[in-house]
Each structure stands twice: as C-alpha cells, then as structure tokens.
Amino acid sequence: MDVIGDARDRLIVGLDLSDPDSAREMVARLGDDVSFYKIGMELVYGGGLDLVAELVGAGKKVFLDLKLHDIPNTVAAATRQVARLGATYLTVHAYPQTMRAAREAAGADVGILGVTALTSASDADLAEAGYAMGARDLVLRRARQATEAGIAGVVASAEEAAAIRAAVGDGLRIVTPGIRPANAEAGDQKRVMTPAAAIASGADRLVVARPIIGAADPRKAARDIVREIEVAARKR
Ligand code: C5P
C-alpha cells in the first residue's frame, strides 16, 4: 500500500485547468505547500499528459484521473501505457471487470483507484440512470468489489468514508473529492464535507480543486486546508 507522509501528503489538488501552461503556473503559485496533484480529463485532452512526468520529476506525486471504463483488453492496454508515466494513482470506474483488468495490467507501477459513484450523483440521479440502489448502497457494494479485485483504493464521497471503513477495513485507500471548506461554494457537488470532517470520517486523502485553484490566493487556501487536515488527523 502507498505510504502517507505528513498532512500535506493527504491533500491532492485537482489541476482542473484547460492547458499545461495554466497548470504549470498554478503549480508554481502553490509551491511547497502542495505535494500531490490530480490531472484529469480536461488537462490531458488539452495536451497535459506530459505534465505527469514533469511533476514526478520535480518530486511531486500525481493522481491521473482518467476514469477508464471499456472492455477489459482495452482497459489493460491503456493501463499499461499509464503505468510507465510514474503516477501514484490511476482511476477506473469501479466495475468489477474493469477493476480486475486494470489491477492486473498495473502491477506495482501505479495504484488503481475505483470510482465508486460520482460525488455529483444523488440518489435521484442514480435512479434516472437506471440503478436500483441509492448512492450509499452502490458505493459499499463497489468498495467490497474493489477489495476483491485487489486494487489500491476507492474514490468516494466523504459521507461514505466511515461506512466503507466499517465494511472493508483498512485494506483500501479512501480518496474523497467533494471537499468544501466551511465558507466555500458547493458548485455541482452534492455530497460535500469539510476537510476536517472528511479526515475524521476516515478519508485517507482529499481531492480539492475549485476551492483552491479558484481562490483569490490559492497558496493560502491550500495552506489553510493542510492545517485543518493536520489538526483533524492528529485527533483520529
Ligand atoms: O472543484 P472540486 O473540488 O469539486 O473538484 C473535484 C475533483 O474531483 C474534480 O476534478 C472531479 O472530476 C473529481 N471527482 C469527483 N467525484 C468523483 C471522482 C472525481 O468530483 N467521484
């Protein structure tokens, strides 16, 4: 299992920006206050895949949020390509077939995280999409399946972190987006929690994008969140 260092290592800043230069600028602004970045679809499709090696070369960790889901052969092939880049995590949608294919292809080179249910999805959204169960049941079912598939962890709302821990124990990393400091706007996220509450609920690492990259002073926003994480982690 990947090692978690200090409180700073628990904060993953989402570089939800459209091009590599904006991302580089944000990384420079955040400096030493941030050691872990998430690169998602927007940035990758905007030419940002090379940033993975660049950030890893600069001593940062990278979470590549590609949310893969396809036939097992294609998922395995894509995972092998990503495994060379030096990222710490790669996401796949938490379908058993997909998790197993990614896990096998990843070996020890990149940790696979299963996206249990998007944090923007309410029970009504899941029902509309044809699911017979609500977000909580779906997340727990997929967390158990993630354990069976032997992957590194899951991405879930902090609201489900405690239930996931109770269901599957300490074998999975729980990474939670949908984090909002007390004074921040939720945006399209529906299942949100403060950094302190997320850590208290058992989340290992927190993904935060807009409350940091959209702040007037991103570095201060990141530092405040790390401080909040540090206090909450000490109490756990
Ligand atoms: O701006 P905000 O902090 O809401 O960004 C959250 C990030 O986490 C986004 O990049 C989003 O794609 C990602 N994410 C999520 N819910 C998931 C998985 C990933 O919000 N279940």
Short précis:
This protein is α/β, with parallel strands linked by helices and 236 residues long.
Keywords, separated by commas or semicolons:
236 residues; alpha/beta; TIM Barrel; binds cytidine-5'-monophosphate; 8 strands; 8-stranded parallel beta barrel
Describe the protein's architecture and organization.
- This protein is an alpha/beta fold and 236 residues long.
- It has one domain: Aldolase class I (TIM Barrel, Alpha-Beta Barrel), CATH 3.20.20.
- It contains eleven helices and eight strands.
- The protein has an eight-stranded parallel β-barrel, surrounded by seven helices.
- Helix 4 runs parallel beside helix 5.
- It is globular.
- The model has no long low-confidence stretch (mean pLDDT 95).
- Cytidine-5'-monophosphate binds next to strand 8 and helix 10.
- The site of cytidine-5'-monophosphate has 17 residues, from strand 8 and helix 10.
Compute the separation of the termini in Å: 20 Å
Coarse morphology: globular
Strand content: 15-25%
Order of helices and strands: EHEHHEHEHEHHEHEHEHH
The side-by-side strand order for the widest beta sheet comes to: 1-2-3-4-5-6-7-8
Q: Biggest sheet: strands, sense, closure?
A: 8 strands, parallel, barrel
Which helices and strands, and how do they pair?
Elements: E1 11-14, H1 20-30, E2 36-40, H2 41-48, H3 50-57, E3 61-68, H4 72-83, E4 89-93, H5 96-106, E5 111-115, H6 123-128, H7 135-149, E6 153-155, H8 161-168, E7 173-176, H9 195-200, E8 205-208, H10 210-213, H11 218-235
Parallel strand pairs: 1-2, 1-8, 2-3, 3-4, 4-5, 5-6, 6-7, 7-8
